[in-house]
Design a protein that fits this description.
The complex is a heterodimer of chains A (204) and B (412).
Chain A: H1 8-26, H2 34-52, H3 57-69, H4 74-80, H5 82-131, H6 141-159, H7 168-203
Helix pairs in contact in A: 1-2, 1-4, 1-7, 2-3, 3-5
Chain B: E1 2-3, E2 9-10, H1 14-19, H2 27-40, H3 67-70, H4 73-76, H5 83-95, H6 104-108, H7 113-132, H8 144-149, H9 153-162, H10 168-188, H11 200-203, H12 225-247, H13 257-285, H14 293-302, H15 324-337, H16 343-357, H17 369-386, H18 396-411
Antiparallel strand pairs in B: 1-2
Helix pairs in contact in B: 10-12, 13-17, 14-15, 15-16
The chains are: A mainly alpha (204), B mainly alpha (412).
Chain lengths: 204, 412
Amino acid sequence: MNIPPSSFRQKYMARLLGALSSIDRISNKKELSLLKRRKRIKLAADISLALTSNGSLWSHALISKISKLNKDKSLLQRIIGKRTVRNMKNTQFCSGTHMQKLMAGRRRAMKRSFMKRRNMNMIKAMADIKTCPMEVRRPSPYQLARSLVSQRTKLLKRLIPGGESMDSCCLLREAADYIISLRTQVEVMQSLANNGSLQSRQSL
Amino acid sequence: MALQGNGNYVFDEPANYNSSLDYPASTWQTGIAANYAMKMSQTPPQPTAAAAPTEGFLRHVNSSYGLDELLPFSLHSLDYSSRENSLQNVKLASEQSPTSNFFSPISLSKGNVSAEESSSSEQSNADPRSKICARKRKILPNDKARGDLSIGPCPGENTEESKGKRSKIAEGTNEKPDLKSEGELGANGSEPEMNRKDSQQNSKPSEAPKDYIHVRARRGQATDSHSLAERVRREKISERMKLLQDLVPGCNKITGKAVMLDEIINYVQSLQHQVEFLSMKLEAVNPRLDFNMERFISKDMHEPSSMPFASDSALTYPQFPHSEWTQMQTGLSCNIVEPSLGNTREQALKKTINEHLAPAEGCGDANSQIPNLWDDELQSVVQLGLGQNIQLPFTPQRFQGSFSTSYRNIEY
């Protein structure tokens, strides 16, 4: 091993600091309100996180989502990463459609088996209901479990950026990725915030 | 947490995670505390000698647990810092002897919980596969490195996980042939495969690349193409659920998708809330232009979540102009260039950065009014956002506790 591998945390720290410095550079003259400033800091943190964990689906989706939402803050984005933003945008479009095609194909393939199985379950359930008419119609445990799982999968899809266009398999992997990056983000920001605030207090 | 040389995270603040118990209802927080308590009674892991000096996060640690112990092998290899390690290990494995180096990271830390966990996870991955199916990963023709990585069916699946986050694009493209092969599975799945399915599959050298995935039908199960494909998909999902189970602390005992998904959702939500709170805190801290960025760079490199009252030398450092972040970056790059920073070199580094800062001192006086302005706002923001118990001084564990309390206030 010739070159020591720079860790994810170091990279994220570097990027975050660069992003935060660009905030300062932009808002050099005017005093920003708390809210705006907070939004910009969050933006910087998220974008730098997505940029450091380059290559995963959710990072692409996050960057495209942020760049769509904040059209007026393109200055900030340009400073954070000029070429990378453009590259991200291009690749996001490509991968988005590609992913969707893949997903559509997979869904079609799996739908057949699912429909089969669901029909079997429905038939079972109907048979049960027919045989015991006095009982209240309640979903079978399989159906209940499945509905719970599907509900929570939907929630998870909403949580993870870009999760809507993923099947559950990809979703779980992206969730793992995302959890790791979020953890790193929390740690880095925590150390930044703690040490920074301490310094200010000591010097006072 | 600090990052050790071999990619292990080092937890050094027990109170961090004990205070996280304030939030009552989730298992993963108790899991963190439980893990830490478990770890306290164990010996710290022995870092591999080669990897230890290469990272910048060196510190003397009394009690530490590596990332291995929270996350077994398959996830440990997802960590960024260990990507190259694992890639090299696996490459060596494919070139020399298929099994010995692949399991070497495990055998090195033999006496550890991590070893047990990772080896058990490895074996648990191996054994069901040996019973159920023999699978060969389709080797991309244009990706030679990945061809080397596909040692055998079971490690093939693990190496897919073990490539680390940097090679996600390659993995994304690997999904494609996977899907294609699953489509082709319909044609080939009905015929049972004559591949070896016992533990020898780990020791198989990388065979000649084939164009389809062989899946052996389970004994007594339908050999329908649809059900086979479904089973493959289900196994994938269950593998990833296991991965996630190790990521989210405290989910070891949970069996079942629904509960597990619930925990995952809670964890992700709480992490996102934490990020929001931290950004609020950063926003309060950031405009204070009088604080010493360079010092906490070096602190961050060495002691990321350490106690705040470390040394008094910070008071002597000059003030920054508004471009303190760029100064930080120079300090940061210095740190990255010399990752094995000992205590003696830390002083030298501080001196060099101090020299950088000296000419900028003149600009610092103009900004002295701003900290006064933000002082009151800081107090108000802190009290609003972080709860009453956060006053001077900031300490990591209190902050962690305040996160939980404030999170709880928002939730309920």
